[in-house]
Amino acid sequence: QVQLVESGGGLVQPGGSLRLSCFITGIAFSNSFLKWNRQAPGKGVEFVASNSSAGYTKTYADAVQGRFAISRDNENNMLYLDMSNLTPGDTATYFCECATGRGQGTQVIVSS
């Protein structure tokens, strides 16, 4: 059974940084395409970033390009999202996803 558990969200001031983590079990982690999505209050789900199974191909939404970085640790089944220069527009619940599941999400609030 696949399980995804996100952590690392919180309240941060504009311009600040956060690292989100996602621990994933129940899949062939190193062979899996993984991604981060987010959902802001009252809005739909938005793609944030993805990472190919080999880890070499990383794709970002235009809104986060240059500010966010996705990475993975295949030995420890961890997916990360390093976020910097955060703005109030980044306020959302962030979810990690694989082909067969999605976590419960971790909330990020960017506010002064």
Report on this model:
This protein is mainly β and 112 residues long. Strands 2, 4, 5, 6, 9, 10 and 11 form a seven-stranded mixed beta sheet that branches. It is globular. It starts with a strand and ends with a strand. The model has no long low-confidence stretch (mean pLDDT 95).
Label this structure with key terms:
112 residues; mainly beta; seven-stranded mixed beta sheet; four-stranded antiparallel beta sheet; globular
In short:
With 112 residues, this protein is mainly beta.
Overall spatial form: globular
Sheet bearing the most strands, described? 7 strands, mixed
Could you spell the SSE succession in H and E letters? EEEEEEEEEEE
Distance between the termini: 40 Å
SS-derived structural category: mainly beta
Relative strand content: over 45%
Helix content: under 10%
* H/I helix tally: 0
Produce the secondary structure layout.
Blueprint: E1 3-7, E2 10-12, E3 18-25, E4 34-39, E5 45-51, E6 58-60, E7 68-73, E8 78-83, E9 92-98, E10 101-102, E11 106-110
Parallel strand pairs: 2-11
Antiparallel strand pairs: 1-3, 3-8, 4-5, 4-9, 5-6, 7-8, 9-10, 9-11
